[in-house]
């Protein structure tokens, strides 16, 4: 559907909302199955949604209610998480093992969430085990409401670029490697929208552009471990949105997209009439893997050149690119008021938390944050908390706000910390390792205010961007470096902070942040849904009294 068609769709949704007096509903029914796929030429078991790999896109507009009925036809439990969706007051729908019981084989569960006050490019993926390594992921876009101006002209059309590294081993084989204390090792290739061009003349174009027209490309890295550099032969990329925020519209030859990150760019078809390759290639690795896909001009007179544009070298380039990203202070996002009307740099910090990642190979491979390697209990953390039996499932604040001096020893336990409702908190991620890290926080966007080599100390605050840092949900941390984020914990619920690297996350590099409303009020958090799946020790307990209005 082109830009004008999507505009018409948004108008119809708006009219429906006016008639119903409620934000529009979007309904999806998804059948999750196994299927044989061969994206790198090797037949393997994939996870399909309605027979598709990657899965179908979710097309929504700010404030829409999204209802997704998922039928699990796998032979294993399944959960879906909605990466970057904030689920205001509604961590019940987050779709991680800490908030929701898995959907058992042969059963279904209906997710119901609102994309409240959000716009931009996001994605969804399976959060159980290593199922993301088999597929089950897809794009989730949120358009601005018609009444809210967008700071660029309506594009001719828009296209998804769902990219990521890829393994030809099945997700169960990869999981067995990790369970046996070994790493999953290097991937076998990179995919763009579930495939890569062969370059032998047999490839069909992925997308077509009309000369002189401008197109929107939504880029997301859904991979398991590697940052990717994205570029298009001969074309520049005008960055317009990052993970739900309009940004200053700088122009780039290429973009580093770390695992879990999304960007939206504008590309104008103003080059010679021929075909061109888009390229996604691994960064910061000893190996060089890439995927490519063809963009076809409608008046093309020649095939794409086999000479691909080179990838940048080293991570200093990537660090400088991060520093060039700026929040567009005058643009409105999901609300009428400009983004810059929120002066985050003038809010007093009430708490500083420093997270340091570590790895241990003493008794099998484990990853940790502040010395604790997270383990998912049988009873989801949020359910245990809601039913008043948290003390039987986990302990709060097993870690402190400062990492231990000695990070060589690791404790395996559910890792849950408390955050006081509406506190403005500074979080420092320290990475003393040799590989780039990537962290995502569910339920929120945060201001990525600084990123530097070396160790963090309070004096480093003088280098913070306290004016126009981008509000986003995923941030990278370079080797022997730190990154700083700031946010107000104003969304009550149980929220997952995790490494976006699948091996690290699966083996413990994650935690949950419990944000409790002291009022137990519906103003701050929704009640347990009547349809919520129950498991573990709460399965047969009487339902607690609901929150009051």
TrEMBL record:
Coiled coil: none annotated. Residues 1-21 form the signal peptide. Residues 31-144, 158-299, 379-518 form the Plastocyanin-like domain. It holds the Pfam family Cu-oxidase_2. Keywords: Glycoprotein, Signal. It comes from the Eukaryota. GO terms for molecular function: copper ion binding; oxidoreductase activity. InterPro entries: Cu-oxidase-like_N, Cu-oxidase_2nd, Cu-oxidase_C, Cu-oxidase_fam, Cupredoxin. Belongs to the multicopper oxidase family. This is L-ascorbate oxidase. It comes from Phaseolus vulgaris (Kidney bean). The lineage of its organism: Eukaryota, Viridiplantae, Streptophyta, Embryophyta, Tracheophyta.
